[in-house]
Specification:
The strands form two sheets. A six-stranded mixed β-sheet has the order 1-7-6-8-5-4, with helices on one face. The protein has a two-stranded antiparallel sheet with strand order 2-3. It contains six helices and eight strands; from the N terminus they run βββββαβαβαβααα. Strand 4 and strand 5 form a beta hairpin. The protein is α/β, with parallel strands linked by helices and 202 residues long. Helix 4 runs antiparallel to helix 5 and helix 4 runs parallel beside helix 6. The termini are far apart. Helices cover 31% and strands 13% of the residues.
Length: 202
């Protein structure tokens, strides 16, 4: 199924069917219970980006209780690999919509990040109907960092602050090519879109 308003195969909404247990309950797993109490374990590199917008590395079943507590409506997944079945089951059980923007991991210095894909992902982030929303890739560093950095440009953050935030998550693995992409990213075609959710409204 295609997501309305997203042409050209950049983004697809994914529908899944859930396996049912014999008693008609869902088999989601029970990894987050200790001494009868439920634990809330955030995914790697989890942080709040803005009101209703979060970022992280790839969530696994140990993070599901924590993600449930956020009341997510949407997840933006920035990797080209298909979403794991257990994660799809969690999304379906919780009514969370998946937006997948398949961006290849760019370790090479001259491999371009697809600007149009980032632009389409930003439109999903800016649409408050998708909030609360989680943005993630594998580690929550590079692809997620680039998308958040481009959001910061829309919010009129100065480049040094954008790069500081990017480096906090990427640490020793910060890439000059990612920072160059954020610096050159043109936000002019998105300036007409409101950022009504933001603490730093323009």
């Amino acid at each position: 199924m295609r997501v309305e308003g997203f042409e050209g195969g950049i983004c697809e909404a994914i529908e899944v069917s859930l396996p049912q247990m014999a008693d008609n309950s869902l088999d989601i797993g029970d990894d987050c219970v200790r001494d009868g109490e439920e634990l809330f374990v955030p995914p790697l590199n989890f942080a709040m980006v803005d009101n209703g917008v979060f970022r992280s590395g790839f969530p696994d079943s140990a993070n599901f209780s924590f993600l449930q507590s956020l009341g997510l409506r949407s997840i933006i997944y920035l990797c080209p690999e298909s979403y794991p079945e257990i994660n799809n089951e969690f999304l379906k059980a919780n009514g969370i919509r998946l937006f997948q923007f398949g961006i290849d991991g760019c370790k090479e210095p001259f491999v371009n990040i697809p600007e149009e894909t980032i632009r389409e992902a930003l439109k999903v982030v800016l649409d408050i109907k998708n909030h609360p929303l989680l943005i993630h890739c594998n580690r929550g560093k590079h692809r997620t960092g680039c998308l958040v950095g481009c959001l910061r440009k829309l919010q009129r953050w100065c480049l040094s602050s954008i790069f500081d935030e990017y480096q906090r998550f990427a640490a020793a693995k910060a890439r000059v090519s990612d920072q160059r992409f954020m610096e050159r990213f043109d936000v002019s075609s998105l300036k007409h879109l409101p950022i009504t959710f933001s603490c730093s409204k323009r």
